[in-house]
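Course assignment 3, question 2. Fill in each field.
Student: A.L.
Task: Predict the tertiary structure for the chain below.
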Amino acid sequence: MRIEYASGRYIARCTFDERAVPKQARFRWDPDQRIWWTDDPRKAVTLAEYFEPSAKAAYEGHAAQIEAAVQASRAVDVDAEIPAPDGLAYLPFQKAGIAYAASRDVTLIGDEMGLGKTIQALGLINADPDIRTVLVICPASLRLNWQREAERWLTRPMSIGVANKAFPETAMVIINYDILRRHRGAVRSRTWDLLVVDECHYLKNPKTIRTIETLGKWNRDPQLALSPIPARRRVYLTGTPIVNRPIELWPILHSTGRPEWHSWKQYVERYCDAEQDKWGWHVTGASNLDELQEILRSTIMVRRLKKDVLTDLPPKRRQVIELPANGAADAVTAEKRAWQARQLIIEALQAAVELAKASEDPADYEAAVQAPREGYMVAFTETAALRHETARAKAP
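Answer field:
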């Protein structure tokens, strides 16, 4: 057997008896030309011992490109000039993330939480003057933050609108997952220069309405399924790209249209430790995660950890988050009233102690001293319960 390289493919020339070798290496069968082939150098290199000179030369070039892409996905600085508003500046690793995204049509920005993924998405708009229309899809609680950050970071005039009952006719539209279905016609009537999908791990279940509206309806048909939302460039944002269950990443990967994520069956067998029995496929496991991460880094994903860029971060940053009208206001008001009532109880009990001091009966004084302790516990218990409810209201 020998492996050649021609027309962008590694081709296995083998006898009928040798057919199991390229098949186990996950080469694909071309029934027309009756050859086993792959365009993935990672699969080809598993049969490097059979390389002809053409395949060896091709792989060396591809390996260098892959390594460069992997390094770029980890970069914490880059020599590039990216427009920023007066008085603001990107952190070095943010510039590296923007440069990575600018070189691709599809990017998954998977930096840890707190490293400024929103700023990097907005920096991409600044870096590419051809981006004139933008659709941002995010959870409802982040719409105001996106609007505020866009007004702060964009370097050229761009009208910004937040979709509610009406769909705004603005250059940038910010819309939450929950109302995508309502505005399906307006969303799909335009070809957006940039589609930003924030917190894209929300799309882990291909059967939910928000996943279908964002990525399209999917089944196990091996045909490539692109996003139903027309966009020239797409950026997905999440702080948890390598999940415990790789199957949850499949809807996003398949929607990119890349050949690496063409087949659901190959994906689950390789990365989800899939097993099939009479009940169907079991795909909740995980396998070959290091390989999956390397492929992600070399194709679409940039990911840096806080420990990698800690020197770039200021000691502490505080941000005011506006709470939407989802019941949090009532919980906060109740907590404030409970605190005021608690203070009145304490003051009254302390006054009782002072009066008891004037009594000649020791039992009166002992009871007066015990009363504030009991009052403190009652007030503390009620306040703790109200704070719990406040936290539940703020959590979304």
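Instructor remarks: The mean pLDDT is 84. The first strand starts at residue 2 and ends at 6.
Grade: pending
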